[in-house]
Amino acid sequence: MTIDISAPRRTPSSALPSKAETPSVVRVLISRFRRQARCGCGWTGRRRLLRSLSVVDALTHAALHGCQPAVPLVDVDIGDRP
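Above: the chain's sequence. Below: its structure in token form.
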């Protein structure tokens, strides 16, 4: 199955943020035993053991609610690693 990505994407007008408000930023926070997606709009994803599932949660939320993914998406504090 192939998907044509050159076709324009139809997004409902209610899902787009208004120009007056700045879109929220969604990111994935990593701790020792928890990976969790959080957004500036107040949304918090489920706690996950796998980082990839948290990334999917974050990108799905961003696509459905008009929020922007952070760059970089995954926030890892290198100093806390053993």
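Residues 51-65 form the longest helix (15 residues).
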